[in-house]
Amino acid sequence: MKPLLSLLIVSILCTGCLSTKVRTYGSISPTEKTITVPPGGDLVGDIKDALASRGWQMVVYHGPRVTRGTFGREVNIQQSDTFNTRYSLYLDANFFDWTFPTFDRAYHYNLSIVDNRNGTEIIVMSGSDGKRRIIKKLSRALDGQLAR
Predict the structure, then answer these.
(1) What does the pLDDT average to over 109-126?
(2) Closest to 62 (Cα-Cα) out of 29, 38, 45
(3) What are the chain's domains?
(4) Burial 35-72 (b: 16+ CB within 10 A, else e)
(5) What count of other Cβ atoms lies within 10 Å of the Cβ of residue 25?
(6) What pLDDT, on the 0 to 100 scale, is given for residue 148?
(7) Strands 34-36 and 57-59
(8) Which residues of 107-120 are buried (b: 16+ CB within 10 A; e: fewer)?
(9) DSSP label at residue 105
(10) How many angstroms separate the Cα of 89 from the Cα of each of 68, 74, 97, 116, 136?
Protein backbone atom coordinates (compact mmCIF):
# COMPACT_ATOMS: atom_id res chain seq x y z
CA MET A 1 0.00 0.00 0.00
CA LYS A 2 2.83 2.42 0.83
CA PRO A 3 4.49 2.06 -2.60
CA LEU A 4 1.16 2.82 -4.27
CA LEU A 5 0.64 5.89 -2.09
CA SER A 6 4.19 7.05 -2.81
CA LEU A 7 3.59 6.64 -6.54
CA LEU A 8 0.39 8.68 -6.28
CA ILE A 9 2.14 11.50 -4.41
CA VAL A 10 5.04 11.58 -6.88
CA SER A 11 2.64 11.69 -9.85
CA ILE A 12 0.69 14.58 -8.33
CA LEU A 13 3.90 16.49 -7.64
CA CYS A 14 5.22 15.90 -11.17
CA THR A 15 2.05 16.91 -13.00
CA GLY A 16 1.37 19.85 -10.70
CA CYS A 17 4.36 21.72 -12.11
CA LEU A 18 2.91 21.93 -15.62
CA SER A 19 0.96 25.00 -16.67
CA THR A 20 0.23 27.12 -19.71
CA LYS A 21 -0.76 30.77 -19.89
CA VAL A 22 -2.86 31.62 -22.96
CA ARG A 23 -3.57 35.20 -24.01
CA THR A 24 -5.60 36.35 -26.98
CA TYR A 25 -5.44 39.90 -28.30
CA GLY A 26 -7.57 39.60 -31.39
CA SER A 27 -9.32 37.11 -33.60
CA ILE A 28 -8.33 35.12 -36.64
CA SER A 29 -9.89 36.13 -39.95
CA PRO A 30 -11.96 33.10 -41.03
CA THR A 31 -11.44 33.94 -44.71
CA GLU A 32 -7.63 34.32 -44.56
CA LYS A 33 -6.33 31.22 -42.81
CA THR A 34 -2.80 31.25 -44.21
CA ILE A 35 0.20 31.01 -41.93
CA THR A 36 3.99 30.86 -42.14
CA VAL A 37 5.25 28.06 -39.88
CA PRO A 38 8.71 26.96 -38.79
CA PRO A 39 10.10 23.81 -40.43
CA GLY A 40 10.27 20.58 -38.47
CA GLY A 41 8.31 17.90 -36.71
CA ASP A 42 7.62 16.80 -33.13
CA LEU A 43 5.80 19.68 -31.37
CA VAL A 44 5.88 21.83 -34.53
CA GLY A 45 4.50 18.89 -36.51
CA ASP A 46 1.60 18.44 -34.11
CA ILE A 47 0.86 22.17 -34.27
CA LYS A 48 0.84 21.92 -38.08
CA ASP A 49 -1.59 18.97 -37.84
CA ALA A 50 -3.90 21.06 -35.61
CA LEU A 51 -3.76 23.95 -38.09
CA ALA A 52 -4.36 21.68 -41.11
CA SER A 53 -7.37 20.05 -39.46
CA ARG A 54 -8.89 23.54 -39.13
CA GLY A 55 -8.44 24.39 -42.80
CA TRP A 56 -5.22 26.43 -42.59
CA GLN A 57 -2.85 26.68 -45.54
CA MET A 58 0.78 26.62 -44.40
CA VAL A 59 4.08 27.66 -45.91
CA VAL A 60 7.55 27.52 -44.41
CA TYR A 61 9.21 30.31 -46.38
CA HIS A 62 8.11 33.82 -45.40
CA GLY A 63 9.10 35.60 -48.60
CA PRO A 64 12.05 37.66 -49.77
CA ARG A 65 13.80 40.32 -47.71
CA VAL A 66 13.41 43.68 -49.45
CA THR A 67 15.89 46.54 -49.26
CA ARG A 68 14.70 50.02 -50.17
CA GLY A 69 16.29 53.37 -49.80
CA THR A 70 17.95 56.38 -51.27
CA PHE A 71 21.54 57.43 -51.72
CA GLY A 72 22.64 61.00 -51.87
CA ARG A 73 23.63 63.60 -49.37
CA GLU A 74 21.90 61.50 -46.75
CA VAL A 75 21.65 57.73 -47.00
CA ASN A 76 18.35 56.18 -45.98
CA ILE A 77 18.22 52.39 -46.39
CA GLN A 78 15.60 50.14 -44.84
CA GLN A 79 15.19 46.38 -44.93
CA SER A 80 11.99 44.49 -44.33
CA ASP A 81 10.67 40.98 -44.68
CA THR A 82 7.76 40.21 -46.95
CA PHE A 83 5.15 37.60 -46.21
CA ASN A 84 3.11 35.36 -48.45
CA THR A 85 0.65 34.63 -45.61
CA ARG A 86 -1.67 36.60 -43.36
CA TYR A 87 -0.21 35.15 -40.13
CA SER A 88 3.12 33.84 -38.82
CA LEU A 89 3.74 31.28 -36.10
CA TYR A 90 6.78 31.77 -33.87
CA LEU A 91 7.75 28.96 -31.52
CA ASP A 92 10.59 28.47 -29.06
CA ALA A 93 10.28 25.09 -27.36
CA ASN A 94 12.61 22.85 -25.38
CA PHE A 95 11.80 19.28 -24.38
CA PHE A 96 12.57 18.77 -20.69
CA ASP A 97 10.75 15.69 -19.39
CA TRP A 98 7.92 13.21 -19.72
CA THR A 99 4.53 13.74 -18.10
CA PHE A 100 3.15 11.19 -15.69
CA PRO A 101 0.99 9.09 -15.96
CA THR A 102 0.42 9.74 -19.72
CA PHE A 103 4.14 9.75 -20.70
CA ASP A 104 3.58 12.68 -23.01
CA ARG A 105 6.59 14.83 -23.96
CA ALA A 106 6.80 17.96 -21.77
CA TYR A 107 8.13 21.29 -23.06
CA HIS A 108 9.10 24.72 -21.80
CA TYR A 109 7.77 26.93 -24.59
CA ASN A 110 6.72 30.31 -25.95
CA LEU A 111 4.37 30.49 -28.93
CA SER A 112 3.04 33.53 -30.79
CA ILE A 113 0.73 33.90 -33.76
CA VAL A 114 1.29 37.30 -35.35
CA ASP A 115 -0.85 39.13 -37.91
CA ASN A 116 1.59 40.01 -40.72
CA ARG A 117 -0.52 42.95 -41.86
CA ASN A 118 -0.13 45.03 -38.73
CA GLY A 119 2.35 43.14 -36.53
CA THR A 120 -0.22 42.43 -33.80
CA GLU A 121 0.14 39.31 -31.68
CA ILE A 122 -3.18 37.51 -31.91
CA ILE A 123 -2.45 34.48 -29.71
CA VAL A 124 0.34 34.16 -27.14
CA MET A 125 0.99 30.98 -25.18
CA SER A 126 3.79 30.21 -22.76
CA GLY A 127 4.64 27.83 -19.99
CA SER A 128 5.69 24.28 -19.31
CA ASP A 129 3.24 21.62 -20.37
CA GLY A 130 2.71 18.29 -22.09
CA LYS A 131 2.49 18.24 -25.87
CA ARG A 132 -1.15 17.07 -25.97
CA ARG A 133 -2.25 19.80 -23.58
CA ILE A 134 -0.37 22.45 -25.57
CA ILE A 135 -2.13 21.34 -28.76
CA LYS A 136 -5.52 21.22 -27.02
CA LYS A 137 -5.12 24.75 -25.64
CA LEU A 138 -3.87 26.10 -28.97
CA SER A 139 -6.82 24.45 -30.73
CA ARG A 140 -9.25 26.12 -28.33
CA ALA A 141 -7.58 29.49 -28.92
CA LEU A 142 -7.70 29.02 -32.71
CA ASP A 143 -11.39 28.11 -32.48
CA GLY A 144 -12.07 31.28 -30.50
CA GLN A 145 -13.12 29.40 -27.38
CA LEU A 146 -11.01 31.50 -25.01
CA ALA A 147 -12.15 34.79 -23.51
CA ARG A 148 -9.96 37.76 -24.34
Answers:
(1) 96
(2) 38
(3) 18-142 (3.40.50)
(4) bbbeeeeebeebbbebbeeeebebeeeeeeeeeeeeee
(5) 12
(6) 44
(7) parallel
(8) bebebbbbbbeeee
(9) E
(10) 26, 37, 24, 10, 16
Please report, as a single letter, which amino acid is at residue 56. W
Number of other CB atoms surrounding residue 23 within 10 Å: 14
Is residue 24 scored above 70 in pLDDT?
A: yes
Task: Confirm if 69 and 78 have CB atoms less than 8 A apart.
Answer: yes
Closest CA to 82 of 44, 36, 122, 45: 36
pTM for the predicted model, two decimal places: 0.78
Kindly tell me if the per-residue pLDDT of 95 is higher than 70: yes
Answer for the pair 75, 51: CB distance below 8 angstroms, yes or no.
no
